[in-house]
Amino acid sequence: MTSPGQEPSLFSRIAAREIPATIVAETDRIIAFEDIAPQAPVHVVITTRTQQYRNVVELAAEDPGLLAELVAVAAGIAAERSNGQFRLVFNTGQAAGQTVFHVHAHLLAQPGPGSPVGDDSLGEGSLAFR
How far is CA 95 from the centre of its chain? Predict the structure, then answer.
């Protein structure tokens, strides 16, 4: 959903299937897809279908239920892909690395047991997998 005169965001266009993406989960209000430039063996972007909220602060203030749904979708993806262990990152503002101003989270994780990808872990305090 966009305001009159507002261009659809990249994520709105993915949700509308105008831009291809590998979608891994979706609900009526949330869509999740693999990041095109992954920073971890498991890297999924989880976003709202509406672009009404620019960042997580706005979302939390205006629709905490939608934020809870976004986190629940993230937990479900992590349960399937990384044994339930994950990092959920919200960049808020350009200086913090936000490049798409449509609220979204990055789920970063190592794959679950039995995966052919190595078993390195994300160290406490680090921002990306090594």
Answer: 19
Q: Report residue 108 as tokens.
A: 């970063």
Per the residue annotation, which of 43, 102, 104, 106 is the catalytic one?
A: 104
The alpha carbon dihedral of 105, 39, 10, 19 has a sign of: negative
pTM: 0.85
How far, in Å, CA of 70 to CA of 46, rounded?
7
The CA-to-CA distance between both ends of the chain, in Å, stands at: 37
Torsion of the alpha carbons at 61, 26, 47 and 81, rounded to the nearest 10:
110
Tokens standing for 52?
């009404």
Determine contact, residues 85/102, Cβ cutoff 8 Å: no
104 is catalytic: yes
> Other C-beta atoms within 10 Å of 49: how many?
19
pLDDT by residue, tens only, the chain of 130 residues: 455 568 999 999 999 999 999 999 999 999 999 999 999 999 999 999 999 999 999 999 999 999 999 999 999 999 999 999 999 999 999 999 999 999 999 999 999 775 544 445 555 555 554 4
